[in-house]
Design goal:
The structure is a single chain. With 932 residues, this protein is α+β, with helices and mostly antiparallel strands. The protein folds into four domains: 152 residues, no CATH class; 223 residues, no CATH class; 218 residues, Cytochrome Bc1 Complex, Chain A, domain 1 (2-Layer Sandwich); 239 residues, Cytochrome Bc1 Complex, Chain A, domain 1 (2-Layer Sandwich). 32% of the residues lie in helices and 20% in strands. The longest helix has 25 residues. It is globular, with a radius of gyration of 33 Å.
């Protein structure tokens, strides 16, 4: 390892020093050192990470980060006792004897070689095979190290060591068997889709096809995926364009992982290696023509469907990490993987300075020697810039002159700091006040705003058609615009439930002026726009955030998708798949918040308005088509039921745009009545009828996660009562009650403003260990409202959980002390004002208030009204609420849940003894006033 020691220009040195210390010294002015513990095989290496800020000023800021510990081991993951599909037993291999260099005379494992049916395998005798090179169109090189060894019998030796069984096993090839997983995506942001594999047996979260390939360094698709992608592209693109696309994919693909894979079929002489590639098509230039396909996998004969799905990037990354976790074992392999991820990051950020060094490392360097050489090169490349920054910024001076750092360096006997006299001359940043600007930076300029009495003052106008327009000032280069429709699932009594759900998923698909996804993407990217559509019980919101100077073309696009949608067969097919996926996700979440909220509405408003399901029932997915959707839009997408809003745009310009894009825009359902149903229902003007009642869904939730750490088995209960509408005089009383009750999960980071002193924390979560979650909610609509508490516990404690919830509702009006009220008021006021710092929230608050009440009540007025509330107001609201019939939802294993009539009787009589539950500690803590 002495070869790793490098003399760099300008007096720099870097490398491994006596196998004890990785050190870099830059003329004594900058220093980084991480030691190796000689008593174990733990090494500390460091990596350089830098980023750009203030690009428009051309100032580069570099930061030196941090030590990461890696554990050196060549051990395999635990293999099962028997080789897959056989009764052949693996020989146990002690940890100390896994390496080939450790001789073991007792190591005499079984020798097993077999070829699965319909597979093309290597001959049973490997003699004549050219290992560690490309042999007869088959790449027999390894990613684990530069070369693997060959034993006296001509068999390759597993670079990870002994596995407990010899031979080729049931793998196809002697030596490395290369598998590939290619992650394909198109679009970006909220519209990013992944091409995934689904089947009845596929239960993984983000299923991507894994197949064996012959040349992993050349191929970018596994064979089956290649046939699908190229087959669809051939129908659209000429051969030259396809070849150009393949070359582009190869150059721009990101190698996420290349290395050993701990397959249960691995043997001493044959093993699996794994390549994970990521190919992105953000502009949908090529993959837009790739459609859903049902194919039969050649290796297993299983029928699967490949389709586009919107998956959270976090979910995909989590699946990839799970796969890599099985393979990413040694120090050098971990370092290689992190360097590869760094390379991908720098490529995406457009930072090219380090790419040659990282490329050299990823291509050629395995092992600690390569690690040290690469670190030295990286430091050498940027040492001058780092030196200048450390002499000119207070933060680096503080790091260099830190007594703790210098003390740790001085304790290392191998380290001698050269020319350290000027280190003591550097000023201590702790003595420089924060009010003093950092030297060397441009002077900050601030935007001055003319103060107004009410910064939330809104302008509201109404056009001849009945369309209402609202705007509010907000300074900056970006704005939020859009429209809110008085529609939603509460109006679906005469339409199939789920119509609004489909409209949300089809919101920004093709329309008459923007007929292809390419046109839509180009228009939005041109104006820096991000669009979103959400449906609720009582509204459908179309919104976009974009540059202020470009809001008109974006508003034109929103108007066109609202009034002139196409809803093609392919778009409906995709929407059905997305809706089905959404329903599956809602029903399988470990904490089913959305499902429980929908169920409590169904229990509270039985078979009417707000009780209708928000999510499309599975039986209605095939029923909803173009005619149904356009007929619903004809009924409810009328000017008098729409509010167009803008935050950060000029009101007069907004009126002008609405006149052009909304008033003069004749909807497709008026121009083409043949696209509608023969009989179209009228507008449903029903008032929500609170009924109360119960919904119980018995379901086994004991095994709902694929994680290594299983999610605890829980049963969920939601208990609620009728509150009031947002136009009722008691609206703020119920809002304050919600703030006072608060709640959350069994774990919270705590801290000021987190609600740790709310009643559900103090009286429920802190007192009853078996309760996993208890959270209050107050949801108000134009004609009603519902106040409820959602709670979770183990199924054995479900009866006690219900008793605790009843107790909290009974005692809600007790001991309303001034301190507690003031804390709840501060909580609700701070939450209100902090939310209204965001343009999208201001937009929704502005438009929904006008849609529901016709006026915009200023947040400042809300603050005044909240301060006026007294304990008597809350007591009146609690009495009003508890006079309504209880709404109850049970979800999970509910054997211990009491009958609804028994719970209802206990609430009516305010008597917990009627529940006949185990005795619980439900006494409220005495206040200081009571003790006095």
């Amino acid at each position: 390892l002495n070869d790793a020691m490098i003399n760099l220009p300008d007096g720099h040195q870097a490398g491994l020093v006596s196998m004890k210390t990785i050190v870099y010294v830059n003329n004594g002015s900058f220093l980084t050192c991480f030691r190796e513990d000689s008593s174990s095989e733990v090494f500390f290496v460091f990596f350089l990470h830098y980023f750009f800020t203030n690009m428009h000023l051309g100032i580069n800021f570099f930061l030196v980060l941090f030590a990461s510990a890696f554990l050196l081991t060549n051990s395999h993951l635990v293999y099962k006792k028997y080789y897959p599909g056989t009764t052949i037993e693996r020989l146990y291999v002690p940890e100390s004897e896994t390496r080939w260099k450790v001789k073991s005379e007792k190591y005499l494992p079984h020798d097993y070689t077999a070829c699965p049916q319909n597979w093309k395998c290597d001959p049973d005798d490997p003699k004549g095979i050219k290992f560690n090179e490309i042999d007869d169109e088959l790449d027999r090189r390894t990613f684990v190290r530069k070369k693997y060894k060959i034993d006296p019998d001509g068999r390759p030796l597993n670079p990870k060591g002994r596995t407990g069984i010899r031979g080729r096993g049931t793998l196809a090839y002697w030596g490395p068997n290369h598998a590939m997983m290619t992650i394909i995506s198109r679009g970006k942001g909220n519209n990013k889709e992944y091409y995934v594999m689904r089947s009845n047996r596929t239960t993984v979260e983000a299923p991507f096809l894994i197949e064996y390939v012959k040349k992993p360094m050349v191929q970018v698709f596994p064979p089956t995926l290649y046939q699908i992608v190229i087959g669809d592209m051939k129908e659209i693109f000429p051969e030259a364009a396809i070849l150009e696309a393949l070359e582009k994919f190869y150059k721009e693909s990101s190698i996420i992982y290349q290395g050993y894979y701990t397959d249960q079929r691995n043997t001493d002489n044959a093993w699996s290696e794994f390549t994970i590639l990521e190919i992105e098509d953000p502009s949908k230039e090529y993959f837009n023509v790739v459609e859903a396909k049902r194919v039969t996998l050649p290796e297993t004969g299983e029928e699967v469907t490949f389709q586009w799905e919107e998956l959270p990037e976090e979910q995909v990354e989590r699946k990839v990490k799970e796969l890599i976790k099985k393979s990413d074992r040694t120090t050098s392999e971990k370092m290689l993987h992190r360097m590869r991820r760094a390379k991908i990051y720098f490529q995406k950020q457009g930072i090219h300075g380090l790419l040659p060094v990282l490329n050299d490392f990823v291509s050629n360097s395995i092992g600690l020697t390569g690690v040290a050489v690469t670190i030295a090169k990286v430091i050498s490349l940027y040492s001058t810039m780092l030196h200048k920054i450390c002499l000119s910024t207070f933060s680096c001076r503080r790091f260099v002159t830190s007594p703790a750092v210098l003390k740790s360096f001085s304790s290392i006997p191998q380290l001698h700091v050269v020319n350290d006299k000027h280190l003591n001359d550097l000023p201590d940043a702790c003595k420089v006040p924060l009010s003093v600007p950092l030297s060397g930076l441009p002077e900050a300029t601030y935007v001055t705003v003319v103060s107004e009495d009410d910064p939330f003052k809104a302008k509201i106008s109404k056009l001849n058609s009945g369309l209402r327009i609202a705007s509010e000032k907000k300074y900056g280069e970006f704005c939020t615009i859009g429209a809110v429709v008085d529609a939603g699932s509460r109006y679906e009594a005469l339409f199939p439930s789920g119509t609004s759900h489909f409209l949300e998923k089809l919101a920004f698909t093709s329309c008459e002026k923007f007929q292809t996804s390419e046109e839509i993407v180009k228009t939005l990217e041109k104006h820096g726009a991000i669009v979103d559509c959400q449906h609720t019980k009582d509204g459908i919101i179309y919104a976009a955030s974009c540059r202020t100077d470009a809001f008109k073309p974006v508003l034109e696009f929103i108007a066109d998708v609202m009034f002139n949608p196409i809803f093609s067969d392919s778009e409906l097919h995709t929407a059905r798949q997305v809706v089905e996926s959404n329903i599956e996700m809602v029903n399988t979440k470990p904490e089913p918040d959305d499902l429980l909220h929908d169920l409590i509405h169904a229990a509270a408003y039985r078979d009417n308005t707000l009780g209708l399901p928000k999510f499309c029932p599975v039986k209605n997915i095939a029923q909803i088509d173009q005619k149904m959707l356009l007929s619903f839009m004809k009924t409810y997408y009328t000017p008098d039921r729409i509010v167009v809003g803008g935050v950060g745009v000029d009101h007069d310009q907004l009126i002008e745009a609405c006149n052009e894009y909304f008033e003069q825009n004749v909807p497709v359902w008026k121009r083409r009545p043949e696209l509608l149903l023969r009989q179209i229902p009228d507008v449903d003007k029903s008032t929500a009828q609170y009924t109360g009642g119960e919904i119980r869904i018995e379901k086994d939730l004991s095994n709902i996660t694929m994680s290594v750490n299983p999610f605890p088995e829980l049963a969920h209960v939601v208990m609620g009562f009728e509150s009031c509408s947002f136009m009722d005089e008691d609206f703020l009383c119920f809002s304050l009650l919600h703030s006072l009750m608060g709640g959350g999960g069994s774990f919270s980071a705590g801290g000021p403003g987190k609600g740790m002193y709310t009643r559900l924390y103090v009286n429920v979560l802190n007192r009853h260990h078996f309760i996993y979650n208890a959270t209050s909610f107050n949801i108000s609509y134009a004609d009603t409202g519902i106040f409820f508490i959602r709670a979770s516990a183990h199924p054995n404690h479900i009866d006690s959980l219900i008793a605790v919830l009843c107790s909290e509702f009974f005692r809600m009006k007790e001991n309303l002390h001034t301190e507690e009220l003031n804390r709840a008021k501060s909580q609700i006021k701070s939450s209100l004002m902090m939310n209204l710092e965001q343009r999208p929230v201001i937009f929704e608050d502005l438009t929904r208030q006008i849609l529901g009440s016709g006026v915009r009540k200023s947040p400042l007025q809300f603050l005044e009204d909240i301060d006026k509330l007294k304990a008597d107001d809350l007591i009146r609201a609690v009495d009003r609420m508890l006079n309504s019939r209880v709404s109850l939802v049970g979800y999970g294993t509910l054997k211990q849940m009491q009958a609804y009539d028994l719970i209802d009787r206990a609430i009516v009589n305010r008597d917990l003894k009627l529940l006949k539950t185990p005795k619980l500690n439900m006494n409220m803590q005495k206040s200081d006033d009571d003790n006095a």
